[in-house]
């Protein structure tokens, strides 16, 4: 193989595929990147840790066709430190990879292309097209709420659910539920249910952020994996097996107290109140809801604080406590300027939703008021 490519474009491609490089596997080849020629004017870079596989293409001048596997860490670190401009990459019969610029030359030991794990091209699943920023918004608005305890099975994943023209993404961890929805005519006719590992969903979101200039992506959801296509990149992610929790059953059907409040005002107050926390402990905050005000308060060994925000309220007064992180995580994922918060009792979950519509729902379990003594 002998190719010439631009350092800047190669770095961009490496940044994308590196998200699939194994960090822990004992299978050494999964710590490598496969570089392969694709015709006379293009190369592809591929990486996989078996659970996620990424292939991306970039422009290059191909003088000799071929393929080689290089160490992801060494190759990426070296290319990053090379000056911008042309890079000549060539291999010999002993799989030595020569990397040359005008002023430098390095040789790395590579491995044969055939040693790289085969990335199968599965049969097509159910396909939908969606705006890049819209799918990123769905992912970023839900994946944070999935469990990070690998022993907890399907709730370490994000549920993709398509029904009656609405795509819903759902994540939960036993203390909170995050739901975001996107409905459109082009989704009608396709019913889909799949569970994608949340940590890999976050990698997909990062990849989409790196693909500048592309407005739409194709999602292909099969029985065993989900594939995401952009113009130059293909991402394959293995699905989690099992039945997802019936999350709709935990959403409250009615409420005794309803509050309409400015999202940014509440977020700022909650973040400031959360600064008062005892060392090594979670930050807890109390909401005191009265006729026209919601007071956010907190207390720790170092001090205490309170802030009052104007609200529109229906129902009785209420005192309720929360882990501050769960409140702020949800609020950060909401673009709306105003939100509605629904409550029942001091030991019942809080539901955060839009003032109108159902584009998102965040359910948060409270903590005991004795935990948030002020």
Indicate the topology:
Blueprint: E1 2-6, H1 7-17, E2 32-37, E3 42-48, E4 52-59, E5 61-64, E6 67-71, H2 72-81, E7 86-91, E8 96-100, E9 105-109, E10 111-112, E11 126-131, H3 132-140, E12 157-163, E13 166-172, E14 176-183, E15 192-197, H4 198-210, E16 216-221, E17 225-229, E18 233-238, E19 257-262, H5 263-274, E20 284-289, E21 293-300, E22 303-310, E23 312-315, E24 318-323, H6 324-332, E25 338-343, E26 350-354, E27 360-364
Helix pairs in contact: 1-2, 3-4, 5-6
Observed structural traits:
374 residues; alpha+beta; DNA Polymerase III, Chain A, domain 2; 9-stranded antiparallel beta sheet; 27 strands; 17% helix
Give your account of this protein's structure.
- The protein is of the alpha+beta class and 374 residues long.
- The protein has 3 domains: 2-115, DNA Polymerase III, Chain A, domain 2 (Roll); 126-248, Roll (DNA Polymerase III, Chain A, domain 2); 251-372, DNA Polymerase III, Chain A, domain 2 (Roll), CATH 3.10.150.10.
- The protein is 17% helix and 42% strand.
- The protein is built from 6 helices and 27 strands.
- The chain has helices at 7-17, 72-81, 132-140, 198-210, 263-274, 324-332; strands at residues 2-6, 32-37, 42-48, 52-59, 61-64, 67-71, 86-91, 96-100, 105-109, 111-112, 126-131, 157-163, 166-172, 176-183, 192-197, 216-221, 225-229, 233-238, 257-262, 284-289, 293-300, 303-310, 312-315, 318-323, 338-343, 350-354, 360-364.
- A 9-stranded antiparallel β-sheet has the order 10-6-2-3-4-18-17-16-11. Strands 15-12-13-14-27-26-25-19-23 form a 9-stranded antiparallel β-sheet. The chain has a 5-stranded antiparallel β-sheet with strand order 5-1-7-8-9.
- A hairpin with a 4-residue loop joins strand 8 (96-100) and strand 9 (105-109).
- Helix 3 (132-140) packs antiparallel against helix 4 (198-210).
- The termini are far apart.
- The mean pLDDT is 92.
